[in-house]
UniProtKB/TrEMBL annotation:
Boundaries of every Macro domain copy: 11-181
Protein name in the entry: Poly [ADP-ribose] polymerase
GO BP: negative regulation of gene expression
Entry's EC annotation: 2.4.2.-
Cellular compartments annotated: Nucleus
Any GO MF annotation of the entry: NAD+ poly-ADP-ribosyltransferase activity
Length: 369
């Protein structure tokens, strides 16, 4: 039983709901008839592209064919017969691997919305990309598109337009919306010292939260350090929301909770980058490649200690992170991505390797000597 000054580690994860975004809609309809500033057309969809060009008129088709002779990138055109201000044709290359597929979806949406913002427009309509001839998982596509929009808090009105005959796609987007509403995101103990919402908040010594982290750390690091300088709670809302949505998807598909608290040691110069930009693929291989080219975590803090390179003052930094293990398999140094049907690779003992940017959340940063 924990004493009065500590909690079980899962007890520090109580959460509150984040507000629903009212500027995101899902509707059945015809993309070409949407009264928005910009409609987005995926160039990989031959059927949709031809349908939009037919509806936009012969002048737009001529401009499109001329434009595609000089670029294979984004192309924006205006049609006098459509209610939108611009038709934005964007390339998209799908992948059969979930990590790469989700990344490509995020990039597709981000590129489109950046164009909308740059042009000072306020509304955009997207089709459901990849839900036709590519044979991709419709539920995965819907969740990836919808969750990205919700997390990024784009200051424009966004509509997902689903063809009326594609009921299964519409249902998938509705489920993605429902899962977002059900996810609780921000831990109740998060506090801020200013209006800018501090990303790194030092914990007060001898609080229940502080003592809980120390007790966990000491299970595998007792006697291996001289002092704890501070423990910082990481309060990155955007990262945390992405992680929690990813966690909800894992629980739904796997029918179990595979989350673990694990350690990740790193040089102190890397901590700010991680806190700002997550454990992304740029950190792949930093702690070895023996079990795969991903980001390494361990349940043994003493193992991660070897990678917590001391700074000039002798201080080391180690993340105490929440990690989604999912289905795991023995890794090797040839693995650039996680094998299909698996979510992590492992040494079979205490090491886990992730391959997705939001598969882990650095809940705490332990700074010690």
């Amino acid at each position: 039983m924990p004493n009065a000054n500590t909690l079980c580690i899962t007890d520090v994860l109580q959460t509150i709901d984040f507000p629903v975004r009212s500027n995101v809609q899902i509707r059945k309809g015809d993309l070409t008839k949407q009264k928005v500033d910009v409609i987005v057309v995926c160039l990989s969809s031959d059927i949709l592209r031809e349908y939009v060009l037919q509806a936009a008129g012969s002048d737009v088709r001529k401009q499109y064919e001329k434009g595609k002779r000089t670029t294979d990138q984004a192309l924006a055109l205006w049609s006098p017969v459509l209610p939108c201000q611009q038709i934005l044709f964007l390339p998209w290359v799908p992948s059969q691997h979930d990590v790469l597929l989700e990344q490509s979806i995020r990039e597709f949406i981000a590129l489109a919305i950046q164009y909308v913002l740059d042009q000072n427009y306020t509304s955009v309509a997207f089709p459901a990309i990849g839900c036709g001839r590519f044979g991709l998982d419709i539920a995965f596509i819907a969740a990836s598109m919808y969750h990205h929009i919700i997390i990024e808090k784009y200051p424009i009105n966004i509509t997902f337009v689903i063809q009326p005959s594609h009921q299964e796609v519409f249902d998938a987007f509705q489920r993605a919306q429902a899962s977002t509403l059900a996810v609780s995101v921000l831990p109740h103990m998060w506090t801020y010292t200013n209006e800018q919402r501090t990303l790194r908040l030092p914990l007060k010594i001898n609080t229940v939260e502080y003592n809980t982290i120390i007790n966990e750390f000491n299970k595998t690091m007792f006697g291996q350090y001289t002092r704890i300088n501070r423990i910082e709670r990481i309060q990155n809302e955007r990262w945390h929301k992405q992680y929690m949505l990813h966690r909800a998807d894992f629980k739904k598909s796997l029918k179990m909770n595979t989350e673990k608290f694990l350690y990740h040691g790193c040089p102190d110069v890397a901590t700010s980058s991680i806190i700002q930009d997550y454990f992304n693929r740029s950190f792949a291989g930093k702690n070895g490649t023996l079990y795969g080219h991903g980001v390494y975590f361990s349940s043994n803090a003493q193992y991660s200690h070897a990678y917590a390179v001391p700074n000039k003052h002798g201080e080391r930094c180690m993340f105490f992170a929440r990690v989604l293990i999912g289905r795991t398999t023995l890794g090797d140094n040839t693995m650039k991505v996680c094998p299909k049907q698996y979510h992590t690779t492992t040494d079979g003992q205490h090491i886990y390797v992730t391959y997705h940017d939001t598969q882990a959340y650095g809940q705490y940063l332990i700074c010690y000597q």
